[in-house]
Specification:
By secondary structure, the chain is an all-alpha fold. The chain contains 17 helices and no strands.
């Protein structure tokens, strides 16, 4: 093997010799993109305390990554096709790593959000490049196995992010969690030069920049509206965002249908294999990210696990995704793409619906089976769904295909955290309202009364707020007796909220499984 991989894939008469090693590089690149979201889940409490974040600020620390990530993927994938897929991967790793370094040095809310947005731009370039390089590098006979490994990496990252962040938080501040990504990005960039061969679409014409701009505006406005509308109410900002998204989406479709070389062949979404698979991917990650969002809070604020303990207890999800992906690779050729995708969605729905049984006295074992079922379901469904999407596009459109698949993943995750998170918050507030309104606090006056009222409002806002208030109460001999009743009320209320959010997420996935079963073609018409 030469020092650098310089021979383009299109020049090779035989399959690339080091393709499985190249797959490892692509999976490593994907790992940090997904970990950047999940690692923040366990770092959020420390970040909130240190920076004094409001609920809105914390939400934008999280979603500052999501908006550019979702909005730019489609255009970034096509640019990679046009000029260089490996070049796009390297550029994305550089931008992502730079944003992570910036985040590790940030000491204000604005700086943290800016760092997260920079990382989101890098992620938008990286993710479609990994898929298009994978499909371009592997022969069709091996492609489904390679995509299964790629899909399993997403599941591993969901659990590894909290695990690595938790380990770092044992002895460092939240700033250090940004640095998880830097050495991995550096190793992936060097390894990409050595192991990943150059690749780009042959004969691709001019890029449809107008279509690209319309896609960025439509998807960006949609994600913004979803995040703000469901979390903070449908005021003027989210409504304007939703209107811009609808107009932008209509304009994008109309433009793409008429353009001779569209950014995305939107007619592909009318094909049963592409439309059904895209819907399946979106719903799977809606449920997965929503479930992880509230399970991680349960582990930290109710069960009292530290960041590292939380990460360790999420590992069964990663193991289950890997196991499901292995099984998927073996059974999909036998039972067909539709059966594999639907079976995985049903299993994932069963896992999420099991969470409706949790109560104030539930322990870790009550969450273990749902996590495993959710992971196996994702592992079974995602590889054949992604393979169906990528296999339906010609080699010249792999970037657009990867962008479509990855946009479905990120849009699904955004919907999960926004919609299920808002149901969680609303249910928690309704459930704990009785305790807060009738809290047996002593009669206070002046500043003490104001502090007590503020503490109760913080407790009403979130289970994390209630846990922090209870901790403060327990440290004061005059108020220590009120700490345990508050914790018990918050625990019971949050369990009720988990049940409500899980019912919504599980039903969405179950109904989606039926729709996907109807939309996808049967085994006799599956793509070989």
């Amino acid at each position: 093997m030469t020092t650098l991989a310089t021979k383009p894939v299109s020049w090779m008469e035989q399959p690339y010799r080091w393709r499985w090693a190249a797959l490892g590089v692509l999976c490593l690149s994907l790992l940090i993109v997904v970990m950047a979201n999940t690692a923040l889940i366990v770092a959020a409490p420390d970040m909130t305390r240190d920076l004094g974040l409001t609920s809105a600020q914390l939400q934008w620390v999280i979603d500052g990554y999501t908006v550019p990530y979702a909005a730019l993927m489609l255009l970034a994938g096509v640019i990679g096709d046009k000029y260089s897929r490996r070049g796009a991967l390297l550029t994305g790793l550089l931008v992502f790593g730079g944003g992570a370094v910036f985040g590790s040095l940030a000491d204000t809310t604005t700086a943290v959000i800016a760092a997260r947005m920079t990382m989101g731009v890098g992620a938008a370039i990286i993710m479609p490049a990994t898929l298009s390089l994978l499909v371009a590098t592997f022969p069709k006979a091996e492609r489904s196995r390679a995509i299964a490994a790629w899909a399993a990496t997403s599941g591993l990252a969901i659990a590894f992010g909290p695990l690595l962040a938790g380990w770092i938080l044992e002895s460092h501040s939240w700033n250090a969690t940004f640095l998880i990504n830097v050495p991995i990005a550096a190793v992936a960039a060097v390894a990409a030069l050595v192991l990943v061969p150059p690749s780009r679409a042959e004969g691709l014409g001019r890029i449809d920049w107008i279509g690209g701009l319309l896609s960025v505006v439509a998807i960006g406005a949609l994600v913004y509206a979803i995040i703000n509308g469901f979390h903070f109410g449908w005021g003027a900002g989210p409504l304007v965002g939703a209107a811009i998204a609808l107009v932008g989406l209509a304009a994008f479709v109309a433009w793409e249908l008429r353009h001779p070389q569209p950014l995305l062949n939107v007619r592909k979404l009318g094909e049963r294999s592409v439309g059904g698979s895209t819907l399946a991917v979106l719903l799977l990650f809606l449920s997965a990210f929503g479930a992880i969002y509230f399970i991680a809070q349960e582990f930290q604020f109710v069960l009292g696990y530290g960041p590292l303990e939380t990460g360790v207890r999420l590992l069964p999800l990663a193991a289950a995704v890997t196991a499901g992906a292995v099984v998927s690779g073996r059974i999909t050729p036998r039972i067909g793409v539709r059966s594999a995708i639907v079976a995985g969605m049903v299993l994932a729905a069963a896992g999420v619906l099991l969470l409706t049984r949790v109560d104030g006295g539930s322990g870790y074992l009550d969450f273990l089976v749902p996590l495993v079922l959710l992971g196996v379901g994702i592992g079974l469904s995602e590889p054949p769904a992604t393979d169906a999407i990528m296999g339906s596009f010609p080699d010249s459109d792999l970037g657009a295909a990867g962008g479509l698949n990855d946009t479905a993943i990120e849009l699904g995750g955004s919907l999960g955290i926004a919609i299920l998170g808002s149901i969680l918050a609303a249910s928690y507030k309704d459930s704990i309202a009785g305790f807060i309104d009738g809290a047996p606090l002593p009669q206070l006056g002046g500043d003490l009364a104001a502090q007590a009222d503020y503490a109760m409002e913080v407790s009403r806002e979130s289970v994390g707020g209630a846990a922090l208030v209870a901790q403060e109460l327990a440290g004061n001999p005059l108020s220590a007796s009120y700490a345990q009743p508050l914790l018990e009320a918050a625990s019971t209320s949050f369990a009720d909220a988990i049940a409500s959010a899980s019912l919504a997420g599980g039903l969405a996935l179950a109904v989606g499984a039926v729709l996907v079963a109807v939309i996808l073609p049967g085994k006799s018409t599956d793509r070989p």
